[in-house]
Structure formats: structure tokens, C-alpha cells
Write a structure and sequence with these properties.
- The complex is a heterodimer of chains A (about 350) and B (about 1100).
- By secondary structure, chain A is an alpha/beta fold.
- Chain A has 8 helices and 24 strands.
- In chain A, strands 15-17-16-18-19-24-23-22-20-21 form a 10-stranded mixed beta sheet, with helices on both faces. An 8-stranded mixed beta sheet of chain A has the order 2-1-14-4-5-10-13-3. Chain A has a two-stranded parallel sheet with strand order 6-11.
- In chain A, α5 links the parallel β16 and β17.
- The longest helix of chain A is centred in the middle third of the chain and has 11 residues.
- Chain A is globular and about 60 Å long.
- In chain B, the strands form 7 sheets. In chain B, strands 14-13-10-11-12-15-16 form a 7-stranded antiparallel beta sheet, with helices on both faces.
- The longest helix of chain B is centred in the first third of the chain and has 18 residues.
- Chain B is globular and about 85 Å long.
- The relative contact order of chain B is 0.08.
- Classes of the chains: A alpha/beta (about 350), B alpha/beta (about 1100).
- Chains A and B meet through α3, β20 and α8 of A and α9 and α16 of B.
């Protein structure tokens, strides 16, 4: 099988997933662990993921248990990537908690995957040209068209369809699901809250709550005008708001800022951010293609975190009101856990 | 809002430090080797960049850090509180760095702190505070400290009765391990899986010992390490994690190690990472730190094994594995920088506050030299025995591992296609690890052992075993392939992607013999015809996420494009490095390599390095214009040369490995710079060299290559005993031996070697009581440009790498010097040498014989260069680049001072090895010290390699009568200086008869009072001198027991009469206080 990029570049390799051609946006992640988490991360919806670490599949895949709408080991119920590109696949896996091989899991989920690709060379191409359209093709199967992932509202695709309530804690948090990773749910639930998970376009202002959380999600924030409007409404109440990833972008837009598409996004476990105005830095897990333009933040807002490598926005906060957000993933999974304290900060604001 | 409140720091000022003292690690020894030259050199570079004056104490003269321009002042003095205090007093530094000189520097620093010396001189320790170091070093404090933050450590409960034993076991959870305290040799120890087993074992164990130690058994747990960096703003990163291929129980220095970890899930990886950061914050590290874990293979349970609050072997490995310069960054952090204020030195644009993302896998493999030691056990375990290591980089585990197994250069071609090892009990060979276990694993898999069975015997994670199985499977496919026609592109590519060399493929396909390497060339040609070629990839710390101008490269078959664009302008010069450190080749060749690179750069050419030793400075990517961290095999070097298309290649500064490649490379059209390959061959080939000497009328010890015992006996009749015997095929033990009589000769030939038509033995006459003299020199077109003659303190018979060397020579005749110069000139002319060379001579009276000649830099090049203050390698490299450097005018006779090179032995680490010196090299390192005279230089050197000036009691057993006589003057001196001499019967009688008072002691196997072994155990002696009776290594003799006892009880031991006499004379004449505290530049 092979991978074809929109600029015509072709990489040949061997299949280890479901044998059906698929198109998507080809992106790369430099994370060295955590493929079960990444593949089930709804933010990857519509994307063909290239893993730069060459050895993949080593520890298999854990069992896909979901209890009360919460997956035990994954970041959602299903695999969200459109395809997977790696260099060296471990046909045999070894781990006490593994239930099946990565290959079997991909096949079950009907996701094509290719190994034997020079993923470093592919990454360099993406780095040069930016994230691009691509497709995984099988010689004996028919071709597919390239797809423009931006032409689709992926948030609508991956968001929950109805309101789900978790836990029975003291504080009531409304979680707007733009494609939430389940570890965000877990991070809240271990902090004694009642979590009301609502669809991305649900008007939560009708609900009673103590704090508002806006989740991560795939693609272009421009599709989420409904959510932005709802957030604006919520801002009139002065109740604490916390956003992650897409949540950062939507909160920014609600506050008057603009977003733009990065050349090739941040997808890794080693993104360095600095808390603005301090000497404190954190290693963060990231997965986003769009960013907030620091220069467009309104006068009531200020950057909370800045990326140390490229200076892009990594979070904002309101100067006077209890609203803040992070572009990275404090809930980690996969990735470093340095910033999980932000959940505590959010809950402190409610007190 | 108050999110930031916790993180607002008020103190943003950098420390104002003007002069920093940095402690090195001294001579290379097992457990403390070249990695500290690398970390010290990086720290010095970081300080220099800040304009801080640096003072370095390190007697290891062969290192890069003790070279001109690296530190501002260099003291070749022992790293002991006594000498360090004197340097502090003289230099008055305001900062001290302890983290860059291994355990030696750390221990010394802690002692200086505890004795109040640091406070006295108002000297501030930079980086991690001393109290934090103490918290990690003291086991009890360490456990307490980690308990405070709920981090699990390996706890040991001391119990004195059965009930307490049971309670402890219950607390810990079964399985447990029980050890009897105060019992040697593991008597009464064992594993218990439940209370019944504990009862049975403890009952017995209490018979041996009143106290038992109960610990949780972590048998089969994984061993994982993290390298953590923290700055003073509390910012933390983990630069790298590593996983041991071998499960817990084998020291990480003895394990095959991979980076990053391979079998950990995201949750496991980040759980351990989070704990590591928590520990480092709690302890208060500022700089770099290593955290080692035991990790349960069946859950997420863990224990912290230890924390090293300093740069370590692992941190050097992590630096090379990731491209993140840990030591450099740690030094900057010690000065008060924040990580975010430093740049990633690879990308130069992104920040140093990040965690490298690897897009390759590295595999570290230890290099052992156990065959060099007599009596040593080959089992590996919780203490280190390896003398060096290699790091291999690949994009599959199979590729990295097979590369690495070739790199260790122990005659293996990878994981498969090796010579078959004879194994009497495979299960045992797998379950009781030795230095050869990886090759036993190969044979087990090939003979049909299942992964499950091997896992049960070894506890090695199945993931690794499955990868090994992949290699074996490809080998099987290759074996079934009989011709190139049958060989599919797919199989050939698959083999190359799994790290098979061309020779391995040839051997598997055609079942060829070891030395038919040209069939490998046919595979190479076929492979190139099919366009199956390797690609060059960069190590850039960010997995290609950002563009990087990195010159740090490796080669892989798992890729389709090169990262590098080649100019093809013939303006680069390739230097072949020295490979893994081993006995006989270590940091001195790294110094030579680095200096060659420097000279190449100075000439406006691009310097290119090939080497794979993570403990070196030459593999630091900013030492050269391009670094290939890859194999020094013919195949790989040719791959690189074909891409580089350089002006030329230098093979004479990296020791024997590059030297051995010279002829084959030259035959393939490679332009070898300097002395031509045929000359190298003429010096290396014993027959050719000998006939050249005959033609030149230069004398040499008589020798012959013989193929049967009767021929040998015949030859010995002619030359007489003793003889030096060098087998070409070694079964076990040492490769060379001196035999003093027929009995020894026969025994050696029978036990250790094979003599046959196919495996001849070289027998040479052995001249006793001869001086050994060396010349290190550089010639240009056969004309000597510079030379240095040095003289061994010991008589010939001690390997030149173990001998104590004085330069300039102090005790040889002027005529001897003249003759040696003449001979060297003749040889240089005759071989038309252009570049470095070394000749070894025997001198008895004025009779000079040549023993050996190497047309490459020798071990002593850095020593003579630094003592003479003329850089021999710089000159040699200029010559090789075709320049005609002027002959320096200075000669060794102008020196008003003396340099002494003394050897460092690591016998303490090599249990049961006989600590005696012979014709085979045994030392692991060396120091070079300078003094006004022989005595102070020798004393400084001896103190630097761990000898102490005795207080009162000296034990002497002086061997045969010749050595008894040789020792007499020294003993007389001891007696006059009020020392008590204890001596075994013969020595005591001899001394008494010659007017020296000595107290009689009993031999180890004699009963009664004054048994020497008991006295050693009671630490009765301050120095033990034991001169072996003859030159053969005797097992289990009384002498062996005394020598071994001295080592095991940490009493200084000397086994050579000449060295013992010199040492005694030195310390009787002067005291440590008389040693001048002078830095290198002050010797003029």
C-alpha cells in the first residue's frame, strides 16, 4: 500500500490495519508513547496521524471498557484518526494490561494503517509545506479523492448527542463537549464535582451550574459560533470559566480575539510553555492546528501562557473576571502531567 | 485571579561568580570512566562562555579536560580533601562544582563540607547543595526523605526473631528476600513466596546470624531510569528515560540499555516521570539528577532504587542518546540560569526547557574484558565489571542491537552468524547472567528455545525477546538462500533493516569461514547493484518538528532519504575514533582524536568524526563539523566515505581499531592520510617487521612462530627460559604468558591454548631485568619531527600500559638514548612514516632490542605532549594534512621537571581476580603528575591512583631471592624511618640476616597467631607489598590470598619490587606536605 500527498509525493509501505483507502489531513505527532490515547482523541478527527517515534505497537492495546459513558483506558469510545502512518510495527506486543494488538484494534475500527514509511522524511515534508491532504491507497482497491478537513464541522461529528451527567459532587460543572477527552472527565470526577456534559451546541445557560468548562475538540473553531454565543451569554454571569485547547480558542473568540491556522500545528508531549510574567515553565501535551492570535486579545484579556519555542498563545485569562483557558492539555493522557493543577485552580475559583 | 501567585519569584539575579574550582574524577576505573571527561569538559565550556575563570583538579593527564585552553588552570593532583584544600587556599575560588567528577569528586566535596573547609574558605558549592547530596547518599536519610513525599523505596527491615520477620514480610508483601546480616557469601539468604517458606528459611538463617534483613523481592522487575533537570526557579524536565533490557539484579552499567523505554505505556511512562520530578523538587537538586526505578512488570507498582545527585554514566548516555547537553546545561543552571533562558544547542532557536523527542532508538551495550583477568568470575550482577560501553542508533531495535554487538568488538558480527560458543548447560547459561548472555540467547533461540521458556529463565521482557526472534527468523531465511538469484530484494532489505552486516548475510548464505571477508564485499556489490543503500539521519532532539542545523548523524536502512546534502568538494577530513573503552585503549585515544579534529578545523577544512562511544568528548557534536555516531567497521566506514567523498581519512589517532582497517580501506581506494597502508602492514605483520629489522641490523628478542610442542621445546632449548608465549587462538584466560620452565610451558599450552597447524603460537625469548624504554614520535616523510623517550620504572615484563613511566627518562645512559634515537630514525625512514608512531625497546646494559612498533599514536601521546608542552597530535595531523610543520626546538632534556605516569587498577571491582601484573595489560586507567624531581612526581602520581602514605605498619613478602635483594635498601629505609615491617618467613629471615628488623607472620595456610590473612582482615597493615615468586599467575596460592586480601580489605598493594622500592624511597624522603601545589602552567 502507499501514502499519497496532495503535492504528489508517494511513500510506499506495508499495511497493518484495515484495508480500505482513506483520505484525510496528514499531520505528525512527536510523542513517544501513548498511541491508544492519541488514536481515540476526538481532536484527531479527520486526520491521518504520522507517529515520528519509529517503534509502535510495543505494548499492544488495553481492553475497550466503557462504563457510564466513560472509557477506562481510552480517550473516547472509538478511534478517531482516519489513518495511521508509522515506521516499524511491533507485530508481537508485550504488556500485562494489553488485550489485543494495535493491528487488530485498527482492523476492528476499520482504520487503515501503514508501516515501513520514512516517517522522518514525511515529517520534514509536512514541516516545510504545512499540514496537507493525503490518502492511504491500496493497489488492488479503488482510489479515493483528497478531502479538505476544514470543509467539515468535526466538532459536530464527535460531540455527544445528549446531556450526560456524571458524579454527585459538591460543585456543579457544565462541560461543553466539543470532542472531550475522557481524561478531562476523569480529572474532574476525582475532584468531587458533578459534571454535566452537554453537546457542543447546547444552550447550557438554561442550566444551573457553578462553573463552566469548554473542552478540546477537532478542527477549525470557526464552526463553533453557537458555542461562542453561548459562552458570551455565560460571561454575563461572572461564573468561573475554564477552557482547554478548542476551549481556549472559543473563549478567546468569545472575548473578541481571532484565531488562525498554524503551518503544521503542535502535536507532541514536549511543548514548552511559560506562564506569562513568571519564571515558571511547564512541559505540556498538545494537539492543535489552530491558535489564538495574541495581538487580537481585547484589553480585558491577557496571555496566560506563551509557547517558548514559537511564541504562540498557549492560554489566556481575563484581567478581572474568573475566566481562563489553556491551549495545551493539562489533563495529559497522553503526555506529561505537569499542569493538572489547573483543574484545582478552576475549582478554587468556584469556592 | 491568583493562578500565578505560586509562581511569581522575586529573585531574578544571577550569581556573581568569578572563579570556579571544578573537581575531576581522576584515573579511569571500572564504574567511573570517560563519561566524566565528557561532563567536565562540557561544564568547563559552559563556564568559559560566561567569562568565569576556571581551576580544574584532575590528575588524569590523558583527558580532554586537562588540555590547554579548556580550563584556565589545571592541577595534576590527587582529588583528596588534603590536596583540594591546598588548592583552595592557593587559588581562593568563590565557587565549587562537585557534580562533574563522578563519585570521586562528590565524596571529596562532602568531606570538605563536613570538615568545615568550605565554610572556612567561604567557598560556595554551585548547583545542588551539599545537604541534598548527603540526603541521596545516606541510605537512611534517603528513605526518610522519600517517605516524606510518599514515594516508595526499597526498604529493608532488620529483624531478630521469627515473629518480627513475619510481621515485616506481611508489611512488605510476598515474595520477599531474606538476607542474613553479617554472613559472607550469601549464606542463609533466599526468596520466600509465603509465610511457610519464610518460616523454614528464617529458622535456618537465624543459625548463621542473629539478625536477618527482610526485603521485598523485586526479582524480574524492570529497571527504568529518568534523567531529570531542575533549575533554581523549580522548573523541571526529564530529558530522557531508559529501560534496561536485563531485569533488576544486573547493575545498570552491566545491562544492555535502550532509550527511550520500549515497554512502558503512556500511563507508566508519565507516572514514573511525575515521581522523578517530585523527588528532584523535594531533594532540592539544582542541575542534573538521575532517578532509578524498579518497576513491576505486572502492575504499575514501583520502587525507587537510587538517586544520583550528579552527572553520571547514565547522564552521559542520555546526552548522547538525545543530543541534549546535560552537563553543559547543568553547569549553566549552577550559575543561576533558568532553563528557559538557555537555548537548545542543537536547533539554536528553540528553548533548552523542553524534553527531547527521539525518532530513533538507541541501545547501549557494555564492553567487558574479563578474559584479561585470572580467576575472575564471568557472572554479572549488582556490581560493575564492564570497562566500557557502546551506543548504537537505529530505527528498529534489531538494527540498533546488531550494530551495538559489532561495536563492542568482541569478535561477534551481530546477534547471529557468530562463532558457536560451547555451552554445557543452556538453562544455566540463560538464568545466571554472564558477559556472554546475549550470545547465549542467540544460540538458545536458534536451537529452538521458545520465547516463553527463555522469559521464564531470564525474566527479560517478551517484547525484547520477540525482537531477537525476528533477527533469528531472518537469519533462517538467509540460510535457506543459496545464491544471489534466490535472494529477493525484500529479504535483503529486511535483513539490512534489522541491522545485518554484509558479512553476516554472506556468512548465512554461503556458510563461509570467519576470515573470508571478501564474500561480504560481494554482498556489498550486489546490494549496491540493487540500489539497497543506507541513509543518513540527523539527531535533532525534536524529531524533525523544527529545522535544525545539527551535524549529529547516524546511518540506517530504515529510511528513504538522506537528511544531509553532500557538497562533494573534497574539503573534509574523516577521523576514525577509538570505539569502546577497553583495557588497552581508552581516553588517551579520545584525546588524540579530539586534537586531530582541532587541527583539521584550524586548517580551514571540515572535520568529520566516526565513533560510537558515548563516554567520549570526540562524540560531542560540537567538537567537529560532522559526527557520524556509527560503526567503525569496514562496511560502515566505506558507506560514510562514499557519501562524504573526503580529502582523506586519518586512521592513526584512534588506536588499534582504525589501524586495523587501514590496509583493506587502502585496497578499496581510500586515501589514507599520512603513513601509507603497506608501511602499516610492514609494521603490524610480525614476519615482515622482523625481516626489516634484520635488514637494518637492528636487534630484537629471538622469536619464532611454531606449530607443535616439540618445535617449541626445540626453540626454547636455543633461547632458554623464560619465554613469552603468544597463542593465536585462545581458549580461556589470558592471551599471553611468560613461562619460566618446561612444566609451566606445557601447562599453559595445554590449558589455555591450542597449538596446531592452523593455530600457531609465537614464542619469544624473554629478557629478565631489562629496562623498557619507549619512544613516541612524529615523522614527516620518514624524517623525525619530534620525539619523546620515556622509561619504565618496572623492569620489562610488566605491560607498558600497566607500567609506571617516567618522562623525561631519569636513569638511562646517554648512549642508550643515542642508540634509541638512531634506531627510531632508521625505522621511520625505512617505513617512510608520516604521522605518529611509537617504538618499544628493551635495554640491558647498552644492548638495545626492539620489541614492538606501532605506526599510530600510542597510549602515552597525551602524557608526553602535556609534560613536554608540545602537542604531538597537532604536529602529526599537520604532517598528515601535507603541511610541513617546523621541528620544535625544545627537547626533553630542557625540562626542569619530571612527569610520572602511574596506572590505575580496578581489582576491587573484579572479585577473585589475581591483582598481579604481567605481560597482559590489566589497568583500567592512568594518571600523569608533574614534580620537580622523580620522588615528588612519583609520590603525587601514586597518591592519585589511590595509594596512601603508610602510617606505621608494612607487610612485605618479597618473593624470590632476586626481588628480596632488590627490596633490601627500601626495607632498610623503612626501618630507619621507624616503620614496622611485617614479613613472611623467608622474607623475615632474609631481612633479619641483612640487619633489618622484621616481625615474622604466618602464611595464610598456617595456623597460629600472626596469620597474615587475619591481620589483613583486622586492617593491621597500611601497605602490603607482595612480590609474586615467578612470572606465572598462580591460582589459590598463598601469595594470591595475600594479594586478594589486601584488595578486598582496601589496603594499598604493590606487587612489583622496583615500584615498591621507588615508592618507599619517595615517601621516606618527602611527605605529602612537601608536594608543591603548582599548576601545569607553573612548571616552566
Amino acid at each position: 500500500m502507499h501514502l499519497v500527498l496532495e503535492n504528489g509525493t508517494t511513500f510506499y509501505g506495508k499495511s497493518f490495519g484495515y484495508e480500505e483507502p482513506r483520505a484525510g489531513e496528514v499531520v505528525f505527532s512527536t510523542a513517544m508513547v501513548g498511541y491508544p490515547e492519541s488514536l481515540t482523541d476526538p481532536s484527531y478527527s479527520g486526520q491521518i496521524l504520522t507517529v515520528t517515534y519509529p517503534l509502535v505497537g510495543n505494548y499492544g492495546v488495553p481492553q475497550g471498557i466503557t462504563e457510564n459513558g466513560l472509557s477506562t483506558f481510552y480517550e473516547s469510545e472509538i478511534i478517531h484518526v482516519s489513518g495511521l502512518i508509522i515506521s516499524d510495527y511491533s507485530f508481537q506486543y508485550s504488556h500485562w494490561n494489553a488485550q489485543k494488538s494495535l493491528s487488530d484494534w485498527l482492523k476492528e475500527n476499520k482504520i487503515p494503517a501503514i508501516y515501513g514509511v520514512d516517517t522522518r522524511e514525511l515529517t520534514k515534508i509536512i514541516r516545510e509545506y504545512g499540514a496537507m491532504k493525503g490518502k492511504l491507497i491500496f493497489p488492488d482497491k479503488e482510489d479515493v479523492e483528497f478531502v479538505d478537513t476544514d470543509s467539515e464541522n468535526h466538532v459536530a461529528k464527535v460531540s455527544c448527542k445528549e446531556v450526560i451527567t456524571y458524579g454527585n459532587g459538591k460543585k456543579k460543572i457544565v462541560l461543553v463537549d466539543c470532542g472531550v477527552k475522557h481524561n478531562i472527565l476523569r480529572c474532574f470526577l476525582k475532584r468531587d464535582v458533578t459534571l454535566i456534559r452537554v453537546p457542543w451546541d447546547y444552550d447550557f445557560n438554561t442550566l444551573e451550574y457553578d462553573g463552566l468548562f469548554i473542552s478540546n475538540g477537532p478542527g477549525n473553531p470557526a464552526y463553533c459560533n453557537v458555542t461562542v454565543e453561548n459562552i458570551r451569554k455565560a460571561m454575563t454571569t461572572d461564573k468561573p470559566i475554564f477552557g482547554i485547547c478548542m476551549g481556549n480558542q472559543l473563549l478567546s473568540i468569545a472575548g473578541g480575539a481571532k484565531t488562525y491556522k498554524l503551518k503544521y500545528g503542535h502535536r507532541s508531549h514536549n511543548q514548552p510553555v511559560r506562564m506569562a510574567g513568571t519564571n515558571r515553565c511547564f512541559v505540556t501535551s498538545q494537539n492543535h492546528g489552530y491558535a489564538v492570535d495574541n495581538n487580537t486579545l481585547g484589553s480585558d484579556w491577557e496571555p496566560l501562557f506563551i509557547n517558548l519555542n514559537d511564541g504562540t498563545n498557549e492560554g489566556i485569562r481575563h484581567k478581572t473576571k474568573p475566566y481562563f483557558s489553556a491551549q495545551f492539555h493539562p489533563e495529559a493522557s497522553s503526555g506529561p502531567t505537569d499542569t493538572e493543577f489547573l483543574f484545582d485552580e478552576f475549582l478554587k475559583l468556584i469556592d | 485571579m491568583n493562578i500565578k501567585d505560586d509562581f511569581l519569584s522575586t529573585d531574578n539575579t544571577r550569581l556573581s561568580i568569578k572563579k570556579v574550582l571544578i573537581l575531576g574524577s581522576g584515573a579511569l576505573k571500572i564504574g567511573e570512566a570517560g563519561e566524566f571527561d565528557y561532563s567536565g569538559s562540557q561544564a568547563l565550556k559552559a563556564l568559559k562562555e560566561e567569562g568565569i575563570e576556571t581551576v580544574l583538579i584532575n590528575p588524569n593527564i590523558a583527558t580532554v579536560q586537562t588540555s590547554e585552553g579548556v580550563a584556565d588552570k589545571i592541577y595534576f593532583l590527587p582529588i583528596t580533601p588534603f590536596f583540594v584544600e591546598k588548592v583552595i587556599k592557593k587559588e581562593q575560588p568563590d565557587g565549587l562544582l562537585l557534580a562533574f567528577g563522578g563519585q570521586t569528586a562528590l565524596n571529596c566535596g562532602v568531606k570538605l563540607f563536613e570538615s568545615g573547609i568550605l565554610e572556612k574558605y567561604n567557598l560556595r558549592v554551585l548547583g545542588t547543595p551539599v545537604q541534598a547530596i548527603i540526603d541521596t547518599e545516606d541510605r537512611e536519610l534517603f528513605v526518610k526523605k522519600l517517605d516524606q513525599i510518599d514515594v516508595k523505596t526499597i526498604k529493608s527491615f532488620a529483624v531478630e526473631n521469627m515473629a518480627d520477620a513475619k510481621t515485616a514480610a506481611k508489611d512488605l508483601g510476598y515474595p520477599i528476600i531474606v538476607r542474613a546480616a553479617y554472613a559472607l557469601g550469601g549464606l542463609g539468604s533466599g526468596f520466600c513466596n509465603n509465610e511457610q517458606e519464610l518460616e523454614a528459611l528464617a529458622e535456618k538463617a537465624f543459625n548463621y546470624s542473629p539478625q536477618l534483613l527482610v526485603e521485598k523481592s523485586l526479582k524480574g522487575w524492570k529497571e527504568i531510569e529518568y534523567e531529570v533537570v531542575r533549575d533554581r526557579y523549580d522548573n523541571c524536565i526529564t530529558v530522557c528515560n531508559m529501560e534496561n533490557f536485563d531485569p533488576l539484579g544486573i547493575h545498570t552499567g552491566e545491562s544492555i540499555v535502550v532509550a527511550p523505554s520500549q515497554t512502558l505505556t503512556n500511563s507508566e511512562y508519565h507516572k514514573l516521570r511525575e515521581i522523578a520530578i517530585r523527588i528532584v523538587r523535594h531533594i532540592g537538586i539544582v542541575g542534573e539528577c538521575n532517578v532509578q526505578y524498579a518497576f513491576d512488570p505486572d502492575s504499575e507498582d514501583y520502587r525507587v532504587i537510587e538517586v544520583n545527585a550528579r552527572l553520571s554514566r547514565s547522564s552521559a548516555l542520555a546526552s548522547k542518546a538525545t543530543g541534549y547537553p546535560l552537563a553543559f546545561v547543568a553547569a549553566k543552571l549552577a550559575l543561576g540560569y533558568g532553563l528557559f533562558e538557555l537555548k537548545n544547542s542543537v536547533t539554536k532557536t528553540t528553548t533548552a526547557f523542553f524534553e527531547p523527542a527521539l525518532d530513533y532508538v538507541v541501545c547501549k551495550i557494555p564492553r567487558w574484558d574479563l578474559a584479561k583477568f585470572h580467576g575472575v568470575s564471568r557472572e554479572i550482577g549488582s556490581s560493575m565489571k564492564s570497562v566500557g560501553e557502546v551506543m548504537a542508533i537505529g530505527r528498529t531495535f534489531e538494527e540498533a542491537l546488531q550494530k551495538g554487538l559489532r561495536m563492542i568488538q568482541q569478535g561477534m558480527h551481530g546477534f547471529v552468524a557468530n562463532k558457536t560458543l560451547s555451552i554445557s548447560d543452556m538453562n544455566k547459561a540463560l538464568s545466571e547472567p554472564t558477559d556472554r548472555r546475549i550470545f547465549y540467547l542467540s544460540q538458545a533461540l536458534q536451537s529452538g528455545y521458545t520465547i516463553e521458556k527463555i522469559h521464564n529463565l531470564t525474566k527479560i521482557d517478551n517484547w525484547f525477546l520477540q525482537k531477537l526472534q525476528n533477527i533469528v527468523d531472518v537469519a533462517k531465511d538467509l540460510k535457506l538462500t543459496e545464491s544471489f538469484n534466490d535472494l529477493s530484494d525484500d529479504l535483503l532489505l529486511r535483513a539490512k533493516q534489522m541491522g545485518f552486516s554484509d558479512f553476516q548475510i554472506a556468512r548465512l548464505m554461503f556458510d563461509i569461514h570467519e576470515n573470508k571477508s571478501h564474500i561480504g564485499d560481494e554482498v556489498r556489490a550486489e546490494r549496491k547493484r540493487r540500489g539497497i543503500l543506507p541513509v543518513v539521519k540527523q539527531i535533532d532532539t525534536l524529531a524533525a518538528e523544527y529545522p535544525a542545523q545539527t551535524n549529529y548523524l547516524y546511518i540506517t536502512y530504515n529510511g528513504s532519504a538522506n537528511d544531509v546534502k553532500y557538497l562533494g568538494d573534497h574539503r573534509s577530513v574523516v577521523v576514525l575514533g577509538s570505539g569502546a573503552y577497553r583495557i588497552g585503549s581508552s581516553v588517551e585515544f579520545d584525546w588524540c582524536s579530539v586534537n586531530a579534529l582541532n587541527t583539521i578545523r584550524k586548517q580551514g577544512l571540515r572535520s568529520v568524526m566516526i565513533n560510537y562511544n558515548p563516554e567520549t568528548v570526540s562524540t560531542d557534536y560540537d567538537m567537529c563539523d560532522r559526527l557520524y555516531f556509527d560503526e567503525l567497521t569496514y562496511e560502515r566506514v566505506m558507506d560514510i566515505l562514499e557519501l562524504e567523498n573526503p580529502m582523506g581519512t586519518i586512521v592513526s589517532v584512534g588506536g588499534q581499531i582504525p589501524n586495523n582497517l587501514a590496509v583493506r580501506m587502502s585496497d578499496s581506494g581510500v586515501n589514507i592520510l599520512g603513513t601509507k597502508a603497506p608501511s602499516i602492514d610492514n609494521a603490524e605483520d610480525r614476519h615482515k617487521f622482523s625481516s626489516m629489522l634484520d635488514d637494518l641490523k637492528i636487534d630484537q628478542p629471538r622469536w619464532q612462530e611454531l606449530r607443535s610442542l616439540s618445535d617449541i621445546t626445540e626453540f626454547v632449548k636455543n633461547v632458554g627460559f623464560p619465554v613469552l608465549v603468544r597463542p593465536s587462538y585462545v581458549l580461556s584466560g589470558a592471551a599471553m604468558n611468560v613461562c619460566s620452565n618446561q612444566e609451566e610451558l606445557e601447562e599453559f599450552l595445554e590449558l589455555a591454548t591450542e597449538v596446531s597447524q592452523e593455530h600457531p603460537v609465537v614464542v619469544s625469548e624473554f629478557i629478565e631485568n631489562a629496562k623498557e624504554i619507549e619512544i613516541d614520535a612524529v615523522a614527516n616523510n620518514g624524517d623525525i619531527v619530534i620525539y619523546a623517550i620515556s622509561e619504565h620504572v618496572e623492569f620489562a615484563g610488566v605491560h607498558s600500559g600497566d607500567a609506571t613511566i617516567q618522562f623525561p627518562p631519569q636513569k638511562i645512559y646517554v648512549e642508550t638514548v643515542r642508540r634509541i634515537k638512531q634506531i627510531a630514525r632508521q625505522i621511520a625512514k625505512s617505513l617512510n612514516i608520516s604521522g605518529p608512531f611509537n617504538i618499544q625497546f628493551l635495554a640491558k646494559d647498552n644492548d638495545i632490542k626492539v620489541i614492538e612498533c606501532n605506526l599510530r599514536a600510542s597510549r602515552s601521546f597525551p602524557f608526553v605532549s602535556k609534560v613536554l608542552k608540545i602537542n604531538f597530535i597537532d604536529l602529526a595531523t599537520q604532517v598528515m594534512l601535507g603541511l610541513n610543520p617546523k621541528k620544535p626546538e625544545k627537547s626533553a632534556f630542557d625540562l626542569d621537571y619530571v612527569g610520572i605516569k602511574a596506572s590505575q587498577f580496578s581489582f576491587t571491582r573484579l572479585q577473585k581476580a589475581d591483582p598481579v601484573l604481567g605481560v597482559d595489560m590489566a589497568s583500567t586507567g592512568e594518571v600523569g603528575c608533574i614534580g620537580h624531581q622523580f620522588d615528588d612526581a612519583l609520590l603525587t602520581a601514586m597518591l592519585s591512583v589511590g595509594y596512601r602514605i603508610p602510617e606505621k605498619n608494612i607487610m612485605v613478602s618479597s618473593g624470590e631471592s632476586k626481588s628480596k635483594v632488590a627490596m633490601l635498601d627500601a626495607c632498610l629505609l623503612l626501618s630507619k624511618n621507624g616503620y614496622n615491617i611485617y614479613a613472611t618467613h623467608g622474607t623475615q629471615q632474609f631481612l633479619q640476616q641483612n640487619g633489618v628488623d622484621a616481625i615474622d607472620v604466618n602464611w595464610p595456610d598456617e595456623d597460629g597467631e600472626h596469620n597474615v590473612m587475619q591481620m589483613i582482615a583486622d586492617k593491621k597493615f597500611d601497605l602490603v607489598i607482595n612480590i609474586p615468586k615467578n612470572l606465572t599467575k598462580r591460582e589459590l596460592s598463598n601469595g594470591y590470598k595475600i594479594r586478594r586480601g589486601a584488595i578486598d580489605f582496601n589496603i594499598p598493594l604493590i606487587t612489583n619490587a622496583r615500584l615498591a622500592s621507588a615508592f618507599i624511597k619517595a615517601f621516606c624522603k618527602i611527605t605529602a606536605d612537601d608536594i608543591d601545589i603548582r599548576n601545569w602552567a607553573e612548571y616552566k
